[in-house]
Amino acid sequence: MAELILLMPLAASGISICTDKFLAGLTALVQALTLAFSLVLAWRVAQYGPLNYGWFYIDAVGALFLLTVAVVSCTAAIYSAGYVRSAHDGAPITGASLRRYYVQFNLFTFAMLLIPLLGNLGLVWIALELTTLTSVFLVGFEYTGRATEAAWKYLIISFVGAMLGLWGLVLLYYCTVHAPAAYQGLEWAHLYRLAGSLNPQTMKIVLLLCLIGYGTRAGLAPMHTWLPDAHGEAPSPVSALLSGAKTTVSFYVVLRFYFIAVRSLGATAQHLMLFFGLLSVLIAAAFILQQQDYKRMLAYSTVEHMGIAGLGAAFGTPLAIYGMLFHLFNHAVTKSNLFYAAGNVLLKYRTREILRVKGLLKSLPLTGVVFLVAVLAIAGLPPSGIFVSELTVLTAGFRTYPGAAVALLALLAVVFFGLVRSMYQMVFGPPGGDVPEMGISNWNNLAMALSLLLIILPGLIALPLLHPLLNAAAAVFAGR
Amino acid sequence: MLYATALKLLGVLGALLLLETLFMLAVRQMRGIIRLYAIHSLLLAISAAVVGYVTGMYHLYLVAGLTLLFKVLAIPYSLERVIHDTILEKREIHFVFGVPGSLLIGGLLCLLAYFTSIRLVYPGDTLARLLLSVGAAVALLGLFIMVGRQEAVPQISGLLIMENGVILIAVVTAFGLPLIAEFGLFLDVLVGALLLGVLVMRLQRHNETTAVGMLRRLKG
């Protein structure tokens, strides 16, 4: 099953090299099938426990993140079908450009689907690198000076993060080899089991290197600086993939290292994570307040939500871990949806300045409604999944680190104000007279409608497969 | 007897690597930096081979070979092509900190690397005692070179130096790493460096400069 999930996008990318006919539909179909297989795999893991064969090790945590990536990839593929019909300048993408887009799109999703399936942290490192290498030219796809600059920053900062992460990985290996229960290898399940016997002195350095190194890709401050540039300049479906899937799956890697370190270091590890989490929310809040560009505003909101997830991990109780994992899922679907809506706005208004967009509800009714609902959801208003998961994290926080929880609550209020103010400016009022006539493709609307369901539903009911998985995943990390 | 000599040789190689990295802090010519990187990688390749001999881990010879192929030949060659195409090879690089300041900070970074790494060495691990802190120092200096240069190609060189430092750490502490991981790592570096090279050319085309310190459009 796991092989099939990986083979499909790989095959789609192979086909994209050869032909440029039906690529959009084909990719959407392939990603939908990948999602279906991921659902089956996740169901099996939820039902019968971890799968472990060959290079694959899929426990509840892996299945959960696999599902998240597959959902976002699927909606992004649907949205892409609309995007290639009318790209940033309104003209369709054709020929070699189209092939290039889909080769990279499918490779990028392949690399991201690979990460949660692997059990060996060395291989995970390589897969994470692969996500960066395959997405660099997607970020720079629109070939403007700004896009190139963003791609440059993205690649070079990610590379620094990768090197720090590798350093941490190597030191982790070094201290497992010399631990009393000597074990040679980088299988996560083994490392997690013998984490208690690792040398705390070394583990402190390992944790610091890993939080900074892998946190770079996840968008944790202070190594988040590439993120607003890349998410702002990339084509909208790619922004959705970066924000929804790539940061999420990178955070998953951070979690794998972090929970090994928690077993070895206890509260020291939690304090370190607390610091990075709070710093991320703080910086994001400051930048959201003074943001002029709506895509960058959404990107900073990603930094904020990674910070919230970091705080959930730092609080460390089973409830907090449950809330954190749930939050990552909710953020992935909500933020990708916001980028789809933002993509439609960009297509219609040809500007990314908040102040020059007015009257979305009138000029693009469906996009306007989705944008309104999704911004309120990402700001934490019910009924949305985000509301539930934020509340869970906060509740757990008040029991363990009340000070941090109060600070988080205050910052959330600031972010809420910033987001809603900008949204109000864009959604209401009469549309300006100079809005060009531009129809939005049905593909775009379909992608938005599908992910809108997933924003609201988790806030209302306990979804069948998701909740058993979340419970099992929280148990994996909480099991002391 | 041969073993003792090999260890001594490793000590000398470590010292040379560190000295060369420090020297790179003061180099202003673009082509000079790339040549120095090739020599740096050569020293790393020899070190990996010697460690392979000392520990009996023969796949380290493969690491040495790949280093030779990719980092002594392929990457420096393509970087030289990039700066040749953009007619920049003799141009001087603008420093953020100036030479004396850079050397001072470099010295402090070496101390930091030494005092954090030496505590991690397990008793009786001669190899790690010899080279772990050297690797850490090289990695930190590489990072500093990257941060302190405002030109695209020297920034790439800084990253690659940092990578050499991390590889050195991997060679002396984790010589049992799975082969696939090593191979993936080398491929990653090669592809990453190529992509960076392509981006440099694009930057040049869009901005008529590769002075990335001048890029100020994306802010806030």
UniProtKB/TrEMBL annotation, chain A:
One GO cellular component term: plasma membrane
UniProt topology in membrane: Multi-pass membrane protein
Segments forming domain NADH:quinone oxidoreductase/Mrp antiporter transmembrane: 120-409
Residues making up the signal peptide according to the UniProt record: none
Any single Pfam family the record assigns to this protein: Proton_antipo_M
Residue intervals passing through the bilayer: 22-43, 55-84, 105-128, 151-174, 205-226, 238-259, 271-289, 309-329, 360-381, 401-420, 446-466
Subcellular location: Cell membrane; Membrane
GO molecular function annotations of the record: oxidoreductase activity
Swiss-Prot/TrEMBL keywords: Cell membrane, Membrane, Oxidoreductase, Transmembrane, Transmembrane helix
First-listed, main subcellular location of the protein, grouped into a coarse class: membrane
Name of this protein: NADH:quinone oxidoreductase/Mrp antiporter transmembrane domain-containing protein
Natural source organism: Desulfotomaculum copahuensis
TrEMBL record, chain B:
UniProt-listed PANTHER family: HYDROGENASE-4 COMPONENT E (PTHR38601)
Transmembrane segments: 6-27, 34-54, 60-83, 95-115, 127-147, 159-177, 183-201
Family annotation (InterPro entries): HyfE-like (IPR038730)
Organism: Desulfotomaculum copahuensis
Membrane topology, record value: Multi-pass membrane protein
Gene Ontology CC terms: plasma membrane
Entry's localization field: Cell membrane
Keywords: Cell membrane, Membrane, Transmembrane, Transmembrane helix
Name this polypeptide is given: Hydrogenase
